[in-house]
């Protein structure tokens, strides 16, 4: 939490994003990516390696992508490499394809690539992984029951 009620997001002790109390988002991006964001959003303002823009001026899917890029730029190299590897995983182990790519990436990023590993987790633990929603949990449980 920042002074005045905003929120700051960190990885490895580095700030990579913030939501200011005045409904502006700030993202810490590499130079080229900061320039790209500013060129796409006329209300974006660049200050060093930070870009600030009204959150209402960017859709949720685009914001998610920009936050991820900021996170990757600030994350410790080992963590960023793990996240990138998980993102590139089309399908891991024997997990059902029907759970979708976000859930597959989230599970792979947590080192979960088989239904046997899924069986050891509760629904709450699965649902706590960003990208694994109720539908994916249901599909995983159905796949386990069918075995």
TrEMBL record:
SUPFAM superfamilies: C-terminal domain of RNA polymerase alpha subunit. This is Helix-hairpin-helix domain-containing protein. It comes from Nonomuraea corallina. The lineage of its organism: Bacteria, Bacillati, Actinomycetota, Actinomycetes, Streptosporangiales.
